[in-house]
Amino acid sequence: MIRKMANVVIKKVEGENEFQHIIPRLTEILFSAYQEFPEYGVENEAEAERYLWWLYRADPDGMFLAYVEDEIAGFIASHSQWWDKYIGVFVGEIHEISVDSAFHGMGIGSRLMKVAEDYFVENKRTVAGLWVGVKNDTAIRFYEKRGYVRAEVRGPWLRMRKYLGGVTGG
To answer: Does pTM surpass 0.70?
Structure first.
């Protein structure tokens, strides 16, 4: 069920200075998002900071923040030039989507997914991909409702993909 939508604004991260400033909040969101499945998340703040920097540096233009009022409620880290070795093409990859549990049910995750998928299409990707924990049924259903289909399983991870349309180039 969708709660009443507050004033949610999606913005791209505007440079390393802004990113450095928001790392503590993004770390809080990561820990909040993985509280039900800690085996899929990071173990401590130092690991979270390294992971967040990796996400940002992989594709700075693909890091989007969801604000409710003046607070960051969630984020998505996407990559528009990711090589999917299983299907042999470049795809738009969603490396991370996290919404603070206090903001669940407001449609923020759906809006972040839409922004990332639009970013992929702008970059001429026809396929979006992501990995999700095989035990995370809630997340799997969330992705399936948005057109993602199950593909490969590798250890504790399930690969999912969605066809976006357009022309894929290398």
So the answer is: yes
